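User: My collaborator and I are trying to settle a disagreement about how two of our proteins should look. Neither of us wants to argue from intuition anymore, so we agreed to look at predicted structures for both before our next call. Could you fold the first one, then the second, and keep them clearly separated?

Assistant: That sounds like a sensible way to settle it. I'll keep them separate. The first protein:
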Amino acid sequence: MEAGTESTTADGAGGAASTLSEIAQRKGFLETSDPALQESADRGEANLLGYTELYELWERQQWRTQDLDFSRDRTDWNERIEPEERLQRMYGLSAFFIGEQRVTDELGPIMRAAPTEEQRIFLSTQIADEARHVRFFNRFYQEVGVLEGADDLAARLRTTKEHLNDAFAELFDVMLKGRVDRLAAAPEDTELLVECVTLYHMVIEGALALTGQHFIIEYNEEQNTLPAFVEGFQNVARDEHRHIAFGVRFLTDMAKEDQRYREAIQRMMAEALPIADQVLDPPWAQEDDWELFGYSRDETHAFAAQCLSRRLKVIGLA
C-alpha cells in the first residue's frame, strides 16, 4: 500500500473504483465530502466542507448504539458462523475494538493543539464519536457473546488484544502514542500537529479503518449475517468518512500555508505506510495470497491505496 501506486489501483483494480462508487451511494456517505468517494478526486478536485459545515453535518448524522437489537446477531455468531470462521473474523473485530479505544484516548491533545476554535469544536465531536464506537463494539461483544469470561469493557479489551499482530502495536502504541504525547507537551508545535493528523486521519482512519469496514460490511451483507452489527458499523464508517474529510481539509490548508507542512505530511506517510501495510495482514496468514472476508490481500491493499491516492491528490501531494 503505497501513496504512489495510483496507476496500479486505478487501472489494475477496476473493482476498487466500482466499490467506491457503490459506497458513495450509502445514506449520508457522500455528504461527508471525503474525497475517496468523489470520482473528481482522481483529477485532484473535490468539494471539501469547511470546519463549521462538518460540525453541522455531525449534528445531522447522530445515531445511538442503544437502538441496535443484537438478538439475531447472537444466533448468527453462535449457530450459523463456523468456529474457524469466527476465529478469522476475530482479527478484524479485534483491530477495530482496540483501535477505537486507542484513538479515543489519543485525540485530546490533537484537539487542544488545533490552531482555530472551529477546528477544536469539530475535533471535540470526533472524540464523542470515537467513544460511541467503543461503546458499539462493547455492546456487540457483550450481547452476542464474542468472548467467554470477559465480563466488562476492560476485560474485553485485554482479551481481544491477543488477536492482534505486532505491527498494530507498533502503529498505535508506539508511533501514534509517542507523537501525541510529544504534542501534549508542546501544543504550539504545528509541524508535529500536521504529522499527528496525517497519521491519525489519513493512515489509521483513511487507509486502515475504512478499508476494513467496507469489506466487512459487504461480506456480512452477502452472507446475510449480523444485521445489527452491519447497521451499526455502517454508522461507524459514515462517522469515519466525516473525520477523514476534516483531515483532508486541514492538511490541504496546511500544505498551502507552508512547504514545511507539505514535507511533514510526506515524511509521516513514508514512515507510517510500511507499518500500516503490515497491520492489514492478519496474524494467522502464512502466505502473501491470503483471503479475508472474500477478498485477497492484493484487492484489500489496492482498495486502501486508491482511497489514499484520491485524498493525496486533493491535498496536492500525489
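The second protein, kept apart from the first:
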Amino acid sequence: MADTVLSNFTPGIEAKEIDTSRILKVGIIGTGWIAESHIESYLQMPDVKIVAAADLIDGKAEKFMKRYGVEGVHFYHDHKELIDNEPDLDAVSVCTYNTQHAAPAIYALEHGVNVLLEKPFTVTLDEAVEVMRAEKKSGKLLSIGFQPRGDENMKMIKKIVESGALGDIYYIQTGGGRRRGIPNSTFIEKSTAGIGALGDIGCYSLDMVLNAIGYPKPLTVTGYTSNFFGTNPMYQYADAQHTAEENAKRFNVDDFAAAFIRLEGGIVLDFRIAWAMHVDTPGDTILFGKKGALRIPSTECWNGTVGGEMTLYTDVAGAQVETKIPIIKSDDDVFSGLFYKKIRSFLDAIKEGKPAPVPSSQILYNQAIIDGICKSAELGREIEIKIPEI
C-alpha cells in the first residue's frame, strides 16, 4: 500500500535552454561572503554581463572582481553612486548586511531597476513594507533570496500538501539549527545584522512550511529569544579580526529563538531555531493534518534541503500506513546549485515578464513573524501581528 501512495509523488525535473539574444546588465551591491555565490552563478550564465559593483569598504569591490577575473566593471562606494551612474542596468543583487537591505532595494526600484534581495527580507516589518511600496510604485521585479525554494525535496513538501494527502493542516512544528554554528563576522552585531539566528536561518525554516501551506496570514505570536552561547567566550571562537572574548563582547543578537504562532485558517505553528545549543537538533519538522501527517528530518546546518527521507503517515483501507519519500538527488552541489537556480529563475522572470519567483507578498508574512517574535520576546507576552496596507 505504501508503494501505491508513493507513486503519487514522483519528481519531474526539466532543464531549460538559456536565451542569449538579450544580455542582461547586472550590478552587485555589497561584495562580502554571500556575494561570492551570486557572482559564481552569474559567471555561468551566457546572457549576463556584470557591469558594476559597490562596497562601502574602499577597494573591496575591486579585489572581489579581480579574484574572479571579471574585467570592465565600474566600481562605486555605495548603492546610490552605482545606480545613479549606470542608467542601463537591468538588475542588481543586493548582498549587503541585513540592516542595509532596505535602502539599496528601495533606491534601485525607484530608479527602475529589478532587484534580487538577499534574505532576510529586511530586519523589521516596517522596512519590508517600505520596500514593497517602492516595488508597487515602480512596477519592477523584486525577488527575495530563498534558494531552498529551488530544491526538489522542498518542492515535494508543497506537492504533498497540495495533493490533499494530509487533509486540512491544523498544527505544525518546525525549526532546526546547529549544536555549534555561530557565524560571527557582521552577523553578530545589531548595527549590521539587526537580528541573529532568526534572520540567518530561521527565515528559511519558516519559509519551508509556510510556502508549503500557501502562506496564510499570521495573526498572533508569543516569542522568546536568548543569546546565552554567543555572549559566553567558552562557546565562542577566535577569527582573523577578534579573539573569542572580543566576539563574546560584540555579540548582541539572538542565538536562539522560539515562538508559538497562530495563522489564519486555525493553524498553529510551533517554531524554534538556534545557532548554538546542547543538542544536535531541536526536532524534526512535522505537518499535522486531519487525514495524514508528514515528518521532515532536520538538517545539521540548514543547507537548503531536507535531512533525510521524509515519512508520510496515512490510513489506507483501515490500515495505518507509513510511506517513505526518498531523497531526490541532484548532480549539483546543494548550496551552489540552489543559488544558481535562484538567480536563474529571477533573470528568467525579468526576460519573460513573469512574476517574481519568491514574491515579496509572501515573504512579508515571514518578516512579520520574525518581527513579531522580537517584539513579543522584548515585551514578554503574546502580541497581535498587524501588517500595514501596501
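Some points you might bring to the call about the second protein. The chain is about 35% helix and 25% strand. Residues 185 and 240 are 10 Å apart (CA to CA).
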